[in-house]
Amino acid sequence: MVREKIKKSDDFMGFRELNLKYYYNNEENNIVDDFYNPVLINAVKYRRATGYFSSSSFWTFVEGLRIFLEKNDSKIELLVSPNLSEEDIKAISLGEKAKEETIEGFIISKILEEDKYKDQFNLLAWLIYEEKLDLKIVVKKDFNKYGIFHDKFAILYDENYDKIAFHGSLNESETGIMENFESINIFNSWNESDKCRIEEMEKIFNKLWENKSNNWITYDFPESIKQKVIQKRDIRGIYKERKEINIPKKYVLRDYQEKAIQAWFGNTCKGILEMATGSGKTLTAIFAMTRLIKTLKSKGFPCGILIVVPYKNLLEQWCEELSEFNIYPIKCYENKELWFNKLSIEISNFNSNSDVDLFIITTNKTFISKTISKFAL
After folding, report:
1. Which of 50, 64, 18, 15 is nearest to 163 (CA)?
2. Which of 216, 246, 300, 316 is the most buried (most CB within 10 A)?
3. What Gene Ontology cellular component terms go with this record (predicted)?
4. Rounded to an integer, what distance in angstroms lies between the CA atom of residue 55 and that of residue 234?
5. What's the pTM value of the predicted model, to 2 decimals?
6. Which candidate, 217, 236, 275, 252, places its Cα nearest to that of 100?
7. Rounded Cα–Cα distance for residues 10 and 108 (Å)
């Protein structure tokens, strides 16, 4: 069950402001509401090692994940065990191709859960598409010896470079988080006695992530499956409520705003809003844009919208307003590594699929650069 949406009015406090316990179990605590959600809301990076993983796990703490994902630099790094059978291990020992096929088979059958959990699969697909999630598989190097990667720990980082880590029996699965009796111990980097423990967790995580272990091999998420997953995502967004672009009932236009929109439509949707500061130009423009989108959609046409604003703080304000209308544009500004690949894919989808809409927001500086102007929008 998806919980009531967490409000952002408290802003991001940082880990030190959270009133966390040193130990949680899901007999006496709600691990999602008491730990996962508040920590993720204030985190910018989540590094997780787990024996078992399923795509449904992210849906259990989706409300904290929502806010985590809104930050441009947020990232999840995930190390998981494939929990291979004896037959799988024998197959892997036959050669590199067999290894790849076995790893791919595990991902498809155990991680993606495409048929059973459509929403959960879509969430995972979007995390991969947005380059918010890197997933790697850890297997034993000596295939003649049976054993699995079975450790369960995580390190989270906030914008102040503080860290919170946990270690315990909790797997990254819906069953582990919601159904089983599991527990975790909590550590923080501003506690001297915990600091060394976190450093040791980071050390082993880095060693496995960089495939430098003597006893274990770390495989990257196969590119072939990554592309298949991306192609199967719901193009309308991660969350169901994002599917329908709509005008919130709480907004009521003033007469002069309504007249401005009518004049704009009367001039084939061309014109400049000339209003006094504080008179609601942004809201008027969004109303006009939303009505245009709905008109085009009713006639079976896709819609491409490009919004250009002077500064990045205005860009974020626009995005906040647009989210009220269930419009979530691609943010294109500053470091292009954070958005360029996504923009390229979305433009390709828009040009080849009549059912796909495209929403882009950028700054003047980025718009006039070759990075944006190279696209024929």
Report:
1. 15
2. 216
3. cytosol
4. 15
5. 0.61
6. 217
7. 39
For residue 344, which of 330, 354, 334 has the smallest C-alpha distance?
Answer: 330
Cα distance between the two ends of the chain: 40
- 18-49 pLDDT, tens per residue? 999 999 998 899 898 899 999 999 999 999 99
- Enter the tokens of residue 308: 């250009």
CA distance 23 to 18: 14
Q: Which of 69, 102, 86, 95 is nearest to 222 (CA)?
A: 102
How many other C-beta atoms lie within 10 A of the C-beta of residue 97?
9
**Rg (the chain; Cα; Å):** 23
Q: Which two tokens stand for residue 35?
A: 């730990």
Q: What is the pLDDT of residues 94-136, one digit of tens each?
A: 555 555 666 666 666 555 554 445 667 778 888 888 889 998 9
* Residue 347 vs residues 123, 157, 266, 325: alpha-carbon distances, Å: 21, 33, 29, 22
**3-state secondary structure at position 187:** strand
CATH 3.30.870.10 in the chain, residues? 15-232
Return the H-helix or E-strand segment holding 375.
none
Cα dihedral 14, 17, 19, 23 in deg (nearest 10)? 50
Which CATH fold topology does 15-232 show? Answer: Endonuclease; Chain A (3.30.870)
Residue 236: both structure tokens together: 């309308």
- Other C-beta atoms closer than 10 Å to the C-beta of 3 total 14
